[in-house]
Design brief:
Elements lengths: L2 H6 L1 H13 L7 H15 L5 E6 L5 E9 L16 H4 L6 E9 L8 H10 L6 E6 L5 H8 L3 E6 L8 E7 L3
Parallel strand pairs: 3-4
Antiparallel strand pairs: 1-2, 2-3, 4-6, 5-6
Helix pairs in contact: 2-3
Length: about 170
Amino acid sequence: MDGPAAVQVQDAFRLIYAEAFAEPPHEETADDVAAAFRLFPVQAGRPGFRAVLARDAQGKPIGMAYGHPVPPDTTWWDELTRPVPDAMRREDGRRTFGLMELAVRAPWRRQGVARRLHDMLLDGIAAERVLLNVHPSSRAAPAAYRTWGYHRIGEARRDGAEPLRDVMLLDLLT
C-alpha cells in the first residue's frame, strides 16, 4: 500500500509495532510508541513510501513492514560511528530503499511471515540496495536478515541515543 492507504490503517501498524517492540531487547514504552506514531504520517508522506500489512484469517493484524527511498539530502549516513566511502554515501532518492520497520506479532513468528512481508515490500522497487538498522542485542532479526542476503556495514547512533544499532545492507544488483 502507499502512504495514504497506510495512514488510513495506522492503528493496525501501531498495534503490531507496540506489541513487537515492547519485548526485549527494545522494551519500548507506550510513550515510545506514541512518539513513533506521531512520525508515521510524515514517513508515509515521503515519496516512494510503501507498506505491507499481514492479517490472519479473522482479519487481525499479525505483521507489517514499511519504508521509503532514502532522499538525496539524508543525514542518515552521518549517524554511522565510522565513516563509509563517499561512493557508498551517495544518494539520489532512488538508489537506496530504507526499510524502516519489519515486525511480526509473537504467535505468528517462525512461520515465514516476516520473509513474505519483506519480499512483498521490496517487490518491484527500482532501488539498487536496501538499508536497515537492527538492535544489536536482537538475535532473530539479524540472523534472518543475513539469511536473506544482508551484511553488516557498521553501527549507527540513532538520534544520538543508545544503544548503537547495527546497520545492514542488501545489494539488489547481485
